[in-house]
Structure of Fpg/Nei family DNA glycosylase:
Amino acid sequence: MPELPEVEGLAAFLREHAVGHVVARIDVAAFNVLKTFDPPPTSLHGLEVTEVARHGKWVDLDVDGLHLVFHLSKAGWLRWSTKLNPTPLRPGKSPIALRVVLDDDTGFDLTEAGTRKRLAVYVVRDPASVPQIASLGPDPLDPAFDRAAFGALLAGRRTQVKGLLRDQSVLAGVGNAYSDEVLHAAKLSPYALAGSLDEGQVDVLYEALESVLREAVAGSAGRPAAELKDTKRAGMRVHGRAGQPCPVCGDTVREVSFADSALQYCPTCQTGGKPLADRRMSRLLK
């Protein structure tokens, strides 16, 4: 799933390539992705894209006061084209869910692979009217989000720190991949309870959160949308690298599997050398 750095990269790319252009046409090929009906997508036709913003993992195109807002979810992506095919989209005939054509025939497709269709597109007058955006916690890259604000989020919570970092109502934009990377950089177990961390551990976790995200955003800056996924994968130290050596200590990166996701970590760096129990594998071995 695209997370804060990649979504910021997409927003930056669209600021450079879409702002100042007029929306010529919007085609909806998968009607289930459209979560609103008023205003309709056709209300954006003939209006200028004036700004592109990011809200957590959401991209927000300001189109002359109306907003095209989308969340790519687990299997969605944005595919930019310098010259879009003029043939109208046929519903159900491709992975393309929605197409935005600009006045110079450039534009982008929102695509989604797989059978679980979770890509979400809204056309709204105010992004805050999207419930998921209204419920977002603070953005970790907001200048106002300092060490004190982070400490206040953790205080008293009997929640595993891995889950807390991923909770969009607590912190906006961090998902499964970057929570693994942040915890590895902070040398903390994903199972550590947020409220049990001492002040020194909170300091280190805050610094890791800021440095990992800022480094990833910097790595995404200026890259075409098509390269952002590969850039993300190349920057991972433990996430998606189970069975490979940890780049810090050389121990083997381990994995814990869940029903629809998995986390990766380094035992030497994060758990005192002890592997975490993989509950799914434990059930299979009984």
User: Anything to note?
Assistant: The mean pLDDT is 93.
